[in-house]
Structures are given as structure tokens and as C-alpha cells.
Design brief:
By secondary structure, this protein is an alpha+beta fold. Helix content is 21%, strand content 33%. Strand 3 and strand 4 form a beta hairpin.
Amino acid sequence: MSKREHDLVPTHRILSRTEVNEVLSSLGITVGNLPEILASDPQAKKAEAKDGDVLEIDREDFGKSYKYYRHVVER
């Protein structure tokens, strides 16, 4: 099992533009308000995320599921 496939690493998925617009609208924010994740991050690379993409990260904590969103940036 590689580090990228570890059980504790949450799933990262690139959102479509429509999904991004829906999420941002529901949260009342802009892409610039989202926390950033580097395009060079191992999970962003695995998802083949590019600069400007938004990643949805599925996390589970104490039996509850949460969705987090990160804006992919190139530095």
C-alpha cells in the first residue's frame, strides 16, 4: 500500500464548475475565500488537480462525515 492509498487519507475529488458554483453560492463565499492546497500536494497530484480547480475532501471524524473544500494553487 502506497502512502497515497493509506486508509487515513481522505478522498480528494475535483469539482465541476457547476458544483463549484453551487458550493460557493450555498456558502455565500468566493473561490478566494477557500483555503488553498498546492498543486504539488501529493493528493492534489493524485487527483490530477490543476491551478484553479476546487477539491472536495471527504473526511470522517468520530463517526460523522464532513466535506471540506480547497482551492488548488500553483506556486
